[in-house]
């Protein structure tokens, strides 16, 4: 942890000066809930000071791929502050599945689970936050083989039930031959589907129809592609046959058509935290019936 020290005339720093710098930084962080310093170039939240003095600090390890490691946390009437460090074997990432979480909704002021893509609670490494009860299982994936769970449970009977597992890192690449049938031929999904998308991920789909008269149509359930402008892509970066698009989430079905027989679709995650997954069905369409440039509908 690094603190900014005023420029001094000598390299020696008195003990009282260091104490004053640390005290002022911590007091400011308590007031503003801001970072108290930096680690590996990233701001460290005030909570990280207490990570090893909380009511529970546990370490769990997943050594074998796809083997579920149970993870259950219960609080008493006195409340609970708990940090759980998850690690997995090198060459894997961690998938956390939350089966249920019984807390009172409070916009994360009282009860909350914060998941970090690191072993310290650094705000810049926040993957996801749960601020209300979970009734339907949800899962999320780290970008490396470490993850930190930070529980804050206030008075009352609160509980968390779930598990985590190591998932082998693998290249996401699919080569797809679209059959001649006019019906929807198959489905393409986001990396680690149905888990939430991690901040760093990518996938490539190479699709081809059986005839030069057929193009490729992608029918998204909750997503739309738009040509990229000068603003960054916040919810997914796409390249379709060398043309760049940005993705965003919508509440309706959309269809993206490319009037070419062979199509290469490249997707890259671009959010700072976990995002909703997406899915699309692919099929062929008659280019002569819809003669236009590739564009979403």
From TrEMBL:
PROSITE patterns: CUB. It holds the Pfam family CUB. InterPro entries: CUB_dom, Sperma_CUB_dom_sf. Residues 56-167, 172-285 form the CUB domain. Keywords: Disulfide bond, Repeat. This is CUB domain-containing protein. It comes from Ameiurus melas.
């Amino acid at each position: 942890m690094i603190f900014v020290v005023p420029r001094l005339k000598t390299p020696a720093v008195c003990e009282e000066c260091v104490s004053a710098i640390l005290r002022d930084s911590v007091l400011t962080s308590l007031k503003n809930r801001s970072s108290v310093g930096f680690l590996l170039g990233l701001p460290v939240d005030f909570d990280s000071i207490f990570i090893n003095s909380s009511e529970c600090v546990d370490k769990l390890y997943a050594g074998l791929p796809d083997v579920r490691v149970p993870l259950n946390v219960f609080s008493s009437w006195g409340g609970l502050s708990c940090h759980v460090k998850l690690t997995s074997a090198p060459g894997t990432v961690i998938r956390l599945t939350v089966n249920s979480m019984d807390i009172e909704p409070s916009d994360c002021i009282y009860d909350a689970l914060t998941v970090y893509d690191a072993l310290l609670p650094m705000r810049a490494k926040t993957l996801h936050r749960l601020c209300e009860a979970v009734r339907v299982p949800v899962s999320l994936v780290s970008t490396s083989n470490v993850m930190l769970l930070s529980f804050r449970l206030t008075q009352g009977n609160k509980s968390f039930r779930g598990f985590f597992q190591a998932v082998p890192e693998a290249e996401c690449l699919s080569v797809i031959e679209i059959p001649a049938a006019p019906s929807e031929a198959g489905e393409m999904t986001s990396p680690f589907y149905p888990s939430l998308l991690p901040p760093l991920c990518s996938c490539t789909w190479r699709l081809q129809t059986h005839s030069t008269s057929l193009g490729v149509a992608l029918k998204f359930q909750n997503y739309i592609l738009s040509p990229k402008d000068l603003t960054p892509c916040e919810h997914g970066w796409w390249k379709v046959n060398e043309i760049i698009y940005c993705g965003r989430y919508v509440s309706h079905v959309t269809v993206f058509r490319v009037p070419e027989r062979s199509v290469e679709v490249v997707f890259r995650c671009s959010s700072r935290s976990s995002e909703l997954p997406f899915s699309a069905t692919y099929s062929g369409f008659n280019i002569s019936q819809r003669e236009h440039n590739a564009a979403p509908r």
